[in-house]
Write a structure and sequence with these properties.
Largest sheet: 6 strands, mixed, barrel
Structural class: alpha+beta
Strand order of the largest sheet: 2-3-8-5-7-6
Radius of gyration: 33 Å
Length: 414
């Protein structure tokens, strides 16, 4: 763009017009773009925050990568753990036993996923100790037959620390009277709360050695749980480990758990992006009416510029300056406002709740009391580029229309 084209375009933008309605439309266009961009950034940031919140809570109980044996049985787990630790992403490992059982206390019976762990190693791959509301998982000792329950599971069974309940294993034992279920009394030594219903209502922890005895696994385990330096690398690490592990094992990563939920959230995020981008597009295309009125008002000026030697392309560029400037200002203000609001949403939302006397997120229903938010700069960049592109696109027709003004026709009656 030549210097005089930019100079004239900026002068038209700054000039005080006789028609104040045009100025109002220009302001409304910039404000609409800014509002749409800010809304899009805030909505996507909140969705990112929800995803991170659920993922972090899930990873308090789920390993980044899990190596399991076929048939829920893995021999020589130490050798498998040694192979896994050769990967530079693996920072910790812990064996586990997975099983199912019925928990019974008084007249209450509830099914649960039973996980046998080594407390000293489990702490390196999970975060149960940070979510204990009573007792500790470190109270699990081999031979003592202690058990740690989720809060929802403990409430259903109506048990507290020190209570003794019965764990019924599905593997029965054959007697002359028939097949009888295998039962063992356990003492409640801890209660955790992950604020993730699947685990709080359906997971119980016991010592790995007690699980091996109860489920007759000998020295075998179900698998090995791994913690990585970067959880986002989990799918790649799982694929790499699969090439070096024994044939009777397989590797899975955290994204395989609740996979449908993560896929649904990604689809919802894309659809919200499309819907809100259309709002930005509507605001951006208000520029068309603004520039059409400016071109109509400046037709005499266009004719004079053409007689002075300005080419049709130069005329187009002059009138594109205003649209580009409005789009740039609107996008910039939207990005600034959206990022500030997304970063401080934990302050803004409580203020609105206090002002209106309402609560948007009831902790008893959603398990969280405040709106989570996480700004992804790649999302911000994409939003800014898309909104500016819409603004640029909206200037094309009015600018092209200005370049087609006939100087002789306009100056005939001047």
């Amino acid at each position: 763009m030549r210097a005089y084209e930019l100079f004239v375009g900026l002068r038209y933008t700054r000039a005080r017009r006789r028609n104040h309605f045009v100025s109002f439309i220009s302001f409304a266009s910039a404000a609409g773009i800014a509002l749409g961009v800010a809304t899009l950034i805030v909505v996507l940031s909140v969705m990112n925050g929800f995803q991170k919140e659920v993922r972090d809570r899930m990873l308090s109980a789920v390993a980044h990568v899990q190596i399991s044996g076929y048939g829920n049985s893995l021999a020589n787990w130490e050798g498998v753990a040694d192979i896994a630790r050769k990967n530079e992403q693996v920072v910790a490992s812990a064996p586990f036993v997975n099983a199912q059982g019925l928990l019974s206390y008084s007249d209450a019976v509830q099914g649960a996923a039973i996980r046998g762990i080594l407390p000293e190693q489990e702490e390196s791959v999970a975060e149960f100790s940070q979510h204990m509301v009573a007792g500790s998982e470190k109270n699990l000792r081999a031979g003592d037959f202690g058990i740690v329950l989720g809060t929802e599971l403990a409430q259903v069974l109506r048990v507290k620390l020190g209570d003794k309940l019965i764990l019924i294993a599905p593997q029965g034992q054959i007697t002359p009277a028939g097949v009888l279920p295998r039962m063992k009394q356990f003492t409640v030594v801890g209660i955790f709360k992950l604020d993730h219903y699947e685990f709080d209502a359906g997971l119980a922890l016991i010592h790995m050695r007690d699980a091996q005895v109860l489920y007759r696994m000998g020295e075998n385990v179900s698998g090995v749980r791994l913690k990585l330096r970067d959880l986002q690398q989990a799918p790649r690490v799982a694929r790499e480990l699969a090439m070096h592990l024994p044939e009777d094992t397989y590797a899975s990563d955290w994204s395989d758990y609740n996979k449908n939920w993560f896929i649904a959230l990604q689809i919802e995020k894309r659809m919200m992006f499309i819907i809100l981008v259309l709002i930005v597009a509507v605001a951006a295309f208000n520029l068309v009416s603004t520039l059409v009125m400016v071109v109509t008002e400046k037709q005499s000026d266009i004719a004079i510029l053409r007689t002075l030697g300005a080419t049709p392309i130069s005329i187009m560029r002059i009138f594109m300056v205003q649209g580009i400037l409005i789009g740039f200002i609107g996008s910039g203000l939207g990005v600034l406002g959206g990022v500030l609001l997304a970063v401080n949403i934990d302050v803004v939302v409580p203020f609105i709740e206090h002002l209106l006397g309402v609560q948007f997120l009831a902790k008893g229903i959603y398990y969280i009391a405040e709106l989570p938010s996480e700004v992804h700069w790649q999302d911000v960049t994409m939003i800014a580029v898309v909104s500016f592109a819409f603004s640029l696109l909206a200037t094309l027709y009015p600018s092209w229309s200005a370049s087609k003004v006939n100087p002789a026709e306009q100056l005939r009656y001047e």
